[in-house]
Every structure is written in C-alpha cells, then in structure tokens.
Amino acid sequence: MIVAISRFAVKNGKEAEVRSAFENRPRRVEDADGFLGLEVFQEGATFVLLTRWCDEGAFRAWHDSAEHHASHALIPKGLKLDPSMTQLVVGTRIAGASSESPEGELLSDLSAPIARLMRDGSIMHVAVIDAGGQATYANAAFVRACGGEIVGRTLDSVLTAGSHRALMDHVAQDLRTPLIVQIAPAQGDPCSLRVFTRRMSSGFALVGEPPWDDHRALEQQLIALNAELSVLSREHARQARLLEKVNRDMNESHWHLKKISEVLPMCMTCRAVKTGDQTWEDVSSFLARTTDFLSHGYCARCAEAMAVAPISEEP
C-alpha cells in the first residue's frame, strides 16, 4: 500500500470555503481503481490531504484523470495558494510497522468495506461519546440495542448504573482490555456488550459486540438438549409401538378366550379341546396355558396310589 500526502496553504483568506468544498465533495475518488481511503486535516490556513492506494500506479492514474479534475468543482474561484507550502509526498508503507499490526494495516486497507459494515451491520456496535457524556455518533446496531436513537442523549440513560461507572473508570484509565457493559433501554430487551474503548480529543469511542462466548455456551447446551430430546422421542415412539403390540395381542387373546368361554369344542373320545388356532390340544395342557388360576397337585385317589399328600382343599 502507498499513501499520498498533499499539503497546501490558502493565501487569500478562503479557508472556510475550502473546508466547505471538502465537506461537500462529490466523492468521485471512491470509485477509482485501487483507492483505499481518504482523510483531510486542517491547521489554520494549511490543509493536509491524505489518501491511501493499493499502489502508486493507481494513484497516478487517478491524479492524471478527468475525474480527478472534476472532483475539484467546489473549490472556490480565485483561490490563491502559498507556493512554498505546496507539497506532494508519495510513500510506501513499511510492512509490519503499523499500530496493532497486522490488524492495523488491514484496517487501513479495508477501511471502506469496514466502514460500511460498521454503519449497517448488526454485530459491531459503535458509539462516540463527547466530554459531556452525550452520544455524538451511534451506528445502526448500537441504536437498536438502545431501543431507539441515542445521539444527543447521555450514555447513562441506557446503561445500568454499575455499567456506566465501570465504563467511565475504564475510559479514565485508558485501558485496552475488554469490558462487559449492560444496556437496559426504556423500551426493548436488555443486552450485554463486550466493548473496547479509546479516548479521543472530544471524548471517547467504544466498539463492542455481544459476548459470543456466552452465546456459544448456550448454543452448545441447546444442541445437547435437542439431541437428548431426539433420543427420548425415539424411545417414546418405540415404547408406543410396543404398547400397541401388547394391546393388540391382549385383545386377540381376550377375543379367543371369549370365544372359547362361549363354546369349547372337546373330542368325545380323547377329551382333547379345539383351540383358537384350530388345533387340538390336551385339555390339561390347554388349561395350564390359558388360565392364571390353575394349580397342580394330586387328588386323594391318585395321592394314595402315588403315596403322596393330596392337594389341600383349604384356600
């Protein structure tokens, strides 16, 4: 990546008009090939224009194009510059030397898409708070978390008292560690944010996201519960099928017993009985198999013949 730094000084008192031209510029450079970002700084009559490009070729192509000249349409007529203060410097970035590298270099190179994500995304929560505690900027995600527009309101109107005190202490010490704060809007659901803060000339900025570690833990618990529910559901279905089979077998057995109790065919010669499945069976075997109240023993005559005790007639 390269940076092009252009410095010039207004000589005839048109600084306010030049500043207005930059504030209302037509933004043609944003569509240029290889363009990465632009910033403008002012100190009195001196302006410094800083642009970032993929390479010097992309910058030179833009600088020599008709679009570049058209982008100066709002520059005031009759503007005079101090030749001794006019300077253009093109420098190549030293890889690895940026702040918080390599993330710092990525932030420079991806400033345009990151800015769109910061403005319209739902994960990154961003707000700028002035020295009086009022929000001067809040992206869409932070506004939704606060239950409505927050710009112009103080931060303590949406944070819990404990979170607000902790945040102010965090900012005062300019800590780089993350902090969990709780947002409790008057309207909408409360939520927690894991935020980083950075002091600025007019106050401080905070950048945060939901505490995803907690969310992931809840998701894992939900997955485990769903898996357990699936197992229980399958077991319930198996038990239901088994119960249905048992009921069906019982109904069939009851039907056969009812029919048998009504008429039980018995052979006149061998005394075998005809069962429900249309087969012949010894009557004693049939009764032993189909009744729960049948017991075994010897009658008095057989007991005497077998020299054993007869079956008791007592209950």
Structure characterization notes:
The protein has helices spanning 15-23, 56-63, 66-70, 103-109, 111-120, 140-145, 161-172, 212-262, 283-290, 300-306, and strands at 2-9, 35-43, 46-53, 87-92, 125-130, 135-138, 179-183, 191-200, 203-209, 273-274, 280-281. It is an alpha+beta fold. The chain folds into four domains: 2-112, 2-Layer Sandwich (Alpha-Beta Plaits); 121-210, PAS domain (Beta-Lactamase), CATH 3.30.450.20; 221-262; 264-315, no CATH class. A five-stranded antiparallel beta sheet has the order 6-5-9-8-7. A hairpin with a 7-residue loop joins β7 and β8 (191-200). The longest helix has 51 residues, at 212-262. The N and C termini lie far apart (105 Å).
User: How many helical stretches?
Assistant: 10
Number of domains: 4
Q: Uncertain regions: pLDDT < 50 for 5+ in a row?
A: none
Overall geometry? rod-shaped
Major sheet: arrangement of strands: 6-5-9-8-7
Q: The CATH topology of the largest domain is what?
A: Alpha-Beta Plaits
Rg, Å, rounded: 45 Å
At the first level of CATH, the class of the largest domain is Alpha Beta
- Beta-strand content estimate: 15-25%
Q: What is the distance, rounded to the nearest whole angstrom, between the alpha carbons of the first and last residues?
A: 105 Å
What is the residue-averaged pLDDT? 86
Biggest sheet record: 5 strands, antiparallel
Indicate the CATH architecture of the largest domain. Answer: 2-Layer Sandwich
Helix content: 25-40%
Q: Which structural class is indicated by helix and strand composition?
A: alpha+beta
The strand count comes to 11
